[in-house]
Amino acid sequence: MTTLANIALIKYWGKRDEEGFLPTKSSISISMPELKTTTSINVSKQDNDIITLNETLLTLKKSKNIIDFLNFFRKKYNIDAHYIIKSQNSFPTAAGLASSSSGFAALAKELNKLHNLQLSPRELSILARHGSGSACRSIQNGFVIWHKGERADGTDSYAEQLFDEKHWPELKIIVVIVDEKEKKVSSRVGMQQTVDTSPFYREWIIRSEKRIQPMIDAIREKNVVALGELAEQDCLEMHHCMQTTTPTLNYLQPKTKNIMQRVKALRESGIPCYFTIDAGPNVKIITLAEYAGKIMQNCV
Ligand code: PMV
Fold first, then answer.
1. What are 83-120's pLDDT values in tens digits?
2. pLDDT grade, residue 278 (50/70/90)?
3. Which helix (H) or strand (E) holds 204?
4. How far is the CA of 128 from the centre of ligand 1 (A)?
5. How far does residue 278's CA lie from ligand 1's centre (Å)?
6. Is residue 41 within 8 Å of 83, Cβ to Cβ?
7. Which residues line ligand 1 (CB under 6 A)?
8. CA 293, CA 274: separation in Å to the nearest integer?
9. DSSP conformational letter for 95
10. How far is the CA of 126 from the centre of ligand 1 (A)?
């Protein structure tokens, strides 16, 4: 089964409850047709899980988050099985390109199918959330909101489709790969450090939450300027919080900053284009299909 990664337009960065993967705020994403994970699962005859990613057998250390997720799944659904999992990404893994979003969503969907659990999209989203927060948004395609929820048990913290992938086909996200290497500080560690130590974090949460409704309106109205401005500002404020943690957390490289400047210059020349960047150096440029060629010439 193939599952698409998603890129957040309004970011998730930080948990109010680490164990339950409960976020401090809601977030909104778009699915990425070119960023795919294909996963297959079979029951293993051995009493351990065997996980292969991009044709490489994962070490225990590398598979820890996946095994933790499988243990959570086995306990929650009272299932006594181990698995042989084969997963393939169509793009660099763990380089801030949302591989965990499609990876854990694919796992949740495959486990559901294998055991015929008939979980609803909401239940699948809650399950995927326990692998990686952003994975809860990859259960659905198109524009998706992850409601932060209020309950301590996390049953109201799930993702829901706002508009399907056919709503706005002219909207394009161009991925500029600056560095394919795996990031040094994982999202999981980085976001906790940000919650604990950035003096600007609380303020960002309030400001970012206020962008949720305007972002939904911008998507509904297909207003690329409003969407781009909201997404870019939210991304900049998130990176500001990251950079003001102790110790400082910097995912941006000189080449990243260069592309950010080029996007700004293109915009000043009249092309609607905006950047967003996650926990890695790679840049995603938001624009409309008619401008994609010109942007690729200048930025890729
Ligand atoms: O789901 P995680 O733990 O990989 O965190 C994702 C965090 C960001 O990609 C930076 C933002 C987001 O909302 O996807």
1. 999 999 987 766 666 788 999 999 999 999 999 999 99
2. very high
3. helix 201-209
4. 13
5. 7
6. yes
7. 8, 11-13, 27, 98, 100, 132-134, 187-188, 278-279
8. 15
9. S
10. 15
**Distance of alpha carbon 285 from alpha carbon 246, whole angstroms:** 29
pLDDT exceeds 90 at position 62 = no
Q: What tens digit of pLDDT does each residue of 165-218 get?
A: 999 999 999 999 998 887 789 999 999 999 999 999 999 999 999 999 999 999
Residues in the chain: 300
* Mean pLDDT estimate for the chain: 95
Both structure tokens of 12: 């998730």
Residue nearest to atom 10 of ligand 1 (CA): 278
> What amino acid is encoded at 222 in this protein?
K
Distance in angstroms (rounded) separating the CA atoms of residues 119 and 136:
13
Mutation test of ligand 1: which of 186, 187, 282 has the most ligand atoms closer than 8 Å to its C-beta? 187
Q: Which atom of ligand 1 is nearest to the CA of 6?
A: 14
Q: Closest by alpha carbon to 23, among 121, 151, 144, 115?
A: 151
Q: What is the DSSP letter of 54?
A: T
CA 218 to chain centre: 20
| Gap from CA of 14 to ligand 1 centroid (Å) | 9
Contact between residue 25 and residue 12 where contact means Cβ atoms under 8 Å apart: yes
Query: Ligand 1: which of 134, 191, 201 to mutate, most ligand atoms within 8 Å of CB?
Result: 134
Contact 88, 99 (CB under 8 A): no
Backbone phi and psi for residue 155, each to the nearest 5 degrees, phi listed first: -70, -15
